[in-house]
Amino acid sequence: MGTFDWFWKAMGSTNERADKKSKGIVDRAGALAADLSSRSDDEVAAAVRSAVSEQGIVDKPLFLAGLSEAATRTLRMTPFHVQSQAVLRLLEGDVIQMDTGEGKTLVGAMAATGFALTGKRVHLITVNNYLAQRDAQWMRPLVEFFGLSVAAVTEASTRDERVAAYRCDVVYAPVAEIGFDHLRDNQITHRSQTVQAPADVALVDEADSVLIDEALVPLVLAGTVGAQQATGQITEAVSHLVEGRDYAIDAEGRNVSLTDDGARSAERALGITSLYDAEHVGDTLVRVNLALHAKALLIRDVHYIVDEGKVSLVDASRGRVAELQRWPDGLQAAVEAKEGLSVSEGGRILDSITLQALMRRYPIVCGMTGTAVEATDQLRTFYGLGVSVIERATPTRRFDEADRIYATAEEKNRAIVDEIAHLNATGQPVLVGTHDVAESEALAEALEQRGITASVLNAKNDAEEARIIAEAGDVGRVTVSTQMAGRGTDIRLGGADETAREEVVNLGGLAVIGTARHRTARLDNQLRGRAGRQGDPGLTLFFVSLEDDVVVVGGADSSVTARPGADGRIDDPRVHSFVEHCRRVTEGQLLEIHAQTWKYNKLLADHRDILDTRRAALLDTPTAWEELARCNPQRAAELEHLPEEVLNQAAREIMLFHLDDEWSEHLALMDDVRESIHLRAIARETPIDEYHRIAVREFKDLANRAVDKAEQTFADVVIDEAGAHLADAGWKRPSATWTYMVSDNPLAGSGNSFISGVANMFR
Ligand code: ADP
Ligand code: MG
Predict the structure, then answer these.
(1) CA 442 to CA 461: how far, in whole Å?
(2) 508-530 confidence digits (pLDDT tens)
(3) Quick check: do 14-216+356-389 and 397-587 share a fold?
(4) Which of 45, 237, 502, 680 could form an SS bridge with 269, CB 3.0 to 4.6 Å?
């Protein structure tokens, strides 16, 4: 932090003042509660309405007292003081930190109701479809108490359901659905086709997941186009390259790069002078790199299988063949070519947006999570958000044990199984957090051999897994879960119905075991938070081995020596601090990657804003016709006999077609530039400056090209009563579209280390 210390301190004290102030307000609200409790529903609702105006909440104590009374009546939950404080902080636009089990769902709904009462539409963003549905249903009575409307959008929602849901005051939805609808809305050619209605506020649950961990995940809208260009020649050229001489694979096995020799060899085989010439950098070089990736890093039967002449991806994180998934555009073709298969009809990326860019579109962003403090810097830097820590309603009785560190992974794994067996023998419920599905399955098998049956959660089926994890606190249970599985579901001691609560409390509550440290303290703490909800007893314990990824990667620049005990355990303070050091290093690396990648993404986000404005003008005004008629008055005169509405729509479709088409090209081009740019770094240009220079130039060209092509099309295409016959002229919009999140893509799956390298190529 250095020079900025004073700044953060100053911010900290502002927050403290804000906290004191909100405590005062909550106290005054308490005093009003007794009076409100004797009033009718209508009177309570009216009291709350009288406490707000378009400008915001004018009488905060009355507002909170009324809302609290409404929650008591509709949900049978009377908000704790800390919850009311949290509501105030959310309404001020902060990210609040509240421990797991402290009741963030209610807090979020109260704040959303508050925003909605001031006339703002709220998107309440959940981590999955199941929680969107659950929370909307659970909180519905509270929102509707005030005559406001609420709905959920999930993956399963139909178009009509979405249209209706987005027009509600409070909309619960997972971020991906909101993003996909946004992307699809950016392909429409008539305003009436819009699905989403604008929202003023994004209130993000598990805010650090969406705003930070997944911030750079792109949401992609793809469409079918004709067959891909032949990649055969390039595959052939690359197939002769030899590792070490022609290309190098980096230490982590994530990236592969051509050496000078390799580049020359490829150039000879392709009969071109230089891959790095302007004419080749955007296309040939990229495809050579893809072919090289396919050859050097993707292994048949490990990363994909070939079945009935088709390449099917093996989903590393889920351990089964992924259906309906493809690699990003060119890579699929490269692998097909490598296997000598016919290159399938290619999808084309029509549009894509990162979660960070999506979230920044909301005028107001606020959020809630159990782990915000560790993310304070990032939340401020990337979103200008402040963090408010909300105290617990009841003090914690959770005990966090010191890490158990082992020399090797094998010794660690043995110790994990022993510890689980030991806890299980007493009946204490155990929740084990693993890093990926393969690890979960291996552990469950090892446990089975000891006669312990574990439930395994893989984030496959959120509803089903919610049901299982709700029981994770019952006597004798062992539940093994990856990071995302079962999130947002309350783990009550003694089972979901708490019948065996007393017994489990006496056993020490839920024991949470982490099989390795995560790359950030935040992720560790998310797991720890599963134990000790609402003042329950609980235990957390992490196992670490010096062979763990975090230690190997983070400790690359330093080392530690210590003597392990007979079982491989190392209990030496120097080793504990070494592990901490490694984790800080990996945390720093992630931060750096985020900051760097955002620099690249930011420019595209700005371009997208310009594009959106242009799109809106074309959709909502007669601009398209006016512009085209101005540049070609003769053609306009020929068409004058047609109804004005037909002319407007025809011109609109012509303009939008080329605008969208060029934007899609632009995205692909900028991806390619991004991929080749670090190669230019070798030529001593600053990559990001170079990228900016190209992006700005290309975007300007895009705009000009879109208009030029539209003018040309306007001159050529048949326009009659039925509108512009664009498809007949070869200007066809994709016949089908589909959406995906790149993290869905096995390429981004965890436990598959080369993957982020490839994912980087595309983002
Ligand atoms: P979080 O999202 O913070 O982990 P949840 O919103 O899932 O927590 O709530 C955890 C549990 O606490 C739920 O079972 C909920 O019913 C309960 N709860 C929350 N607030 C209250 C309250 N004011 N009074 C009683 N129970 C509450
Ligand atoms: Mg929650």
Answers:
(1) 20
(2) 999 999 999 998 899 999 999 99
(3) yes
(4) 237
